[in-house]
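Dear colleagues,

As part of the handover before I leave the project, I'm documenting each prediction I ran so the next person doesn't have to rerun anything. This entry is a single chain, and its sequence is reproduced below.
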Amino acid sequence: MTSGSGSAPIESTHVQAAVEGAGLRFTWDVDARIEVRSLGAEVVIEANAAGLRTLAGHLLVLVLAGEGATDGAHLHLEDGNGLEDGSVGLVLERNDEE
């Protein structure tokens, strides 16, 4: 993957997460900034471009991982652990039940 304005690759960090015996690889762009706020009946996810790419990548991991991402596969993002300080927690979870 390359940055939108140039040809330099986007720097990222990788995290392996085990889900029911399978490893899922979640990637964070180095300059990602993601903040989650609860406004009563609404939740606001505010992110810079790198943060939006990071969230999109996390969702794609849960979609495209095939057998490695079954019902219940999830990722916890929390204040200081993937999210900006002061953010409320966010869980991305796959649920294929109808």
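The chain is about 15% helix and 40% strand. The beta strands are 12-19, 22-29, 34-38, 43-47, 74-79, 82-83, 90-93.

All the best with the project,
I.
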